[in-house]
Design a protein that fits this description.
InterPro entries: Methyltransf_11, SAM-dependent_MTases_sf. GO terms for molecular function: methyltransferase activity. Keywords: Methyltransferase, Transferase. Pfam families: Methyltransf_11. The chain is an alpha/beta fold. Helices cover about 25% and strands about 25% of the residues. The protein is built from six helices and nine strands; from the N terminus they run αβββββααβααβββα. Strands 1, 2, 3, 4, 5, 6, 7, 8 and 9 form a nine-stranded mixed beta sheet that branches. The longest helix is centred in the first third of the chain and has 18 residues. It is globular. The termini are far apart.
Length: about 230
C-alpha cells in the first residue's frame, strides 16, 4: 500500500533539498543588508538563512489561502506590511503552496525595498522529483512551475536577474553529502535585485544675474572728474 505524506514539505527528502538550497543561496545572500527580511515559506518548519548584515527575519508560512507564522492572515489579501519594508525577500517553495501565485509574487515585489534582493526556490517540474511529489502528496498537490516563468515576470518588472540554477540531487533522497548546483538537480533557485529609481539629471540653464550699481561714485572717480573740469 503506498505511503502518503500529510505534508510533503515535512518529509526528510524535502528537508534535504531545503538544506542544499540554503547552502547554494548563502554566498549570494551574504551581502544583503537592511533592518528586516521576509521569509515566505511552506507550512513545514524551516529556519531562514543566517545573513550577517541583516537585522531580523519575519517568517510567514503559506498554506493555500491561509498565512501563519509571525502573522495570521488570509492568503487571498495583501500582505500586512508596508511598501518597501524589507531588504531581502525569500520565497522558499511558497509559490508552490499558495492559492494565488501571481498575487503572492506581486506582494513580494511590493514590500521589497529598491536595491533589495528577491530569491525564489522550488521543485523543478522536469525530473524525478515531479512524479515523486505526485505519488507522495495527499489532498492538494504542490503547484510546480517552470523557473523561466518567474524569470519573465521579474524581467518585466525591471529586476536585475541572474539565470535560474538547478540544485540538489537528481532523485529524492533523505540523506547523504550536501549537493550544490547540478544540471539535473531536483530543485531550482533564482535571485534578482530590484532596481533603484533612475535619477533624472537636470540640465543647467544660464540665468542673468544683475550686478548691483553703487548709488555714488567712488572718491577717486570724483577727484578725476574735478581735475578734468579744472
Amino acid at each position: 500500500m503506498p505511503h502518503f505524506a500529510s505534508d510533503i514539505y515535512a518529509t526528510p527528502q524535502i528537508g534535504k533539498l531545503l538544506a542544499d538550497e540554503a547552502s547554494a543561496l548563502a554566498p549570494m545572500l551574504a551581502r544583503c543588508t537592511g533592518e528586516h527580511g521576509l521569509h515566505l515559506t511552506t507550512s513545514a518548519p524551516a529556519e531562514p538563512p543566517a545573513i550577517p548584515l541583516l537585522g531580523h527575519w519575519a517568517t510567514v508560512r503559506v498554506a493555500g489561502a491561509v498565512l501563519g507564522g509571525d502573522i495570521h492572515a488570509s492568503g487571498l489579501e495583501a500582505l500586512p506590511f508596508a511598501d518597501e519594508a524589507f531588504g531581502v525577500v525569500l520565497l522558499r517553495h511558497a509559490l508552490e503552496t499558495t492559492a494565488r501565485q501571481d498575487n503572492l509574487l506581486d506582494e513580494a515585489i511590493r514590500v521589497l525595498a529598491p536595491g533589495g534582493m528577491l530569491a525564489i526556490t522550488g521543485i523543478h517540474p522536469v525530473g524525478l522529483w515531479s512524479p515523486w511529489v505526485a505519488r507522495q502528496s495527499r489532498g492538494t498537490r504542490p503547484r510546480l512551475t517552470w523557473p523561466w516563468w518567474w524569470s519573465q515576470r521579474l524581467v518585466r518588472d525591471e529586476f536585475e536577474l541572474s539565470m535560474p540554477r538547478r540544485v540538489g540531487s537528481a532523485w529524492p533522497r533523505a540523506g547523504g553529502a550536501p549537493v550544490g548546483e547540478s544540471i539535473v538537480g531536483g530543485g531550482y533557485f533564482l535571485v534578482a535585485r530590484k532596481k533603484r529609481p533612475a535619477a533624472v539629471p537636470l540640465r543647467p540653464r544660464a540665468a542673468a544675474v544683475s550686478a548691483p550699481m553703487p548709488g555714488t561714485l567712488a572718491s577717486g572717480a570724483r577727484r578725476n572728474a574735478r581735475e578734468s573740469i579744472t
